[in-house]
Write a structure and sequence with these properties.
Distance between the termini: 12 Å
Shape: globular
Number of strands: 0
Helix content: over 70%
Order of helices and strands: HHHHHHHHHHHHHHH
Oligomer: single chain
Number of helices: 15
Amino acid sequence: MTSAKKKFFSPRDIIVYVLSLGLAALFLYWAFKGVDTTQLWGFIKGASPWWIITLIVFQMAAHWFRALRWKAIMESLKPDVSSFNLFGAVLIGYGLNNIVPRLGEIGRAVAVGKSENLSKTSILGTVIVERIIDILLFAFAVILSGWIYEGDIYSGELSWLKLTITLGTGGFLALIVFVVLLIRYKERFSGFITSLIGKFSPKISSKLEEIFHKMIIGFSTLKTTKSYIKTIIYSVLIMLGYAATSWAGFYALGLDTSYSLGLSAAWIIMSISSIGVIIPTPGGIGSYHTITKTAMLMLYGCPEALGLAYATFLHGVTYILHLLAAIIFLIYFKFRLPGVHTEDIIDIEED
């Protein structure tokens, strides 16, 4: 393997990472500006240990369902792929994304490719399919939030959400059409798009061709009705796991009684705050805090310090959880599985 002789980060990677850190710092400034941090820390210190454990259980259950969904997607590649290895790879992905945005997708593909002796290109194809499904799910979750919220969800500082949902709905439908065309017509459809883009930018066309190739490989693994049904069921369970995590966060800080926040509020906050996670900051730092604090204030009247305490608490618990779990599974893959080394798992240059 030649990657050891290469630089881990290219100059472009460094610039992108610095911009990502700068964006995180900007969002953190917006989030904490004018907030009494002493009061904020007081809310967090009073968190219930029992509900912290419950929160962790819900979060890990969502990741386990994600591993099972991934297994259903790649069933035709290797029916007996280890669910535990997939679970470990998922957690490695989250841990790496906490450090470098989008690095986790490569990391978990390499981890599974090495541990299960599968082509990394094929695994990356299934990861891309997973990401497309996630985009569809979270777009639907945000749209659903607008329906179930009792009141005007687009008022005040959340007025931008109406445009986001409108564009999201259009993007949601367009993505469904795109996926259907890609599955149905494969090379013809992707060839038409890449040749059209190639008239303006051959470089972008070449990149798109590579991405389409991986997507076609990924979708081609979903061969049976059973695998589609499993994928849908596990996708629903993943979203419910995330919503349950948010709900447990309410109970941990006593928001269930002081502001009567229940499951519907957990779904809405989970959906809106997911927009902050999509923004390319390391682990959603800053962007998640800003959007969650604003949503808690505008939709449920939570004071800024309390809303930010909830965001900081929930993000902090899951952030630390993902880092620790990633370290544990990096060690596991390194010492328990033959031929797998940590430097292979985090090597992005080759891929």
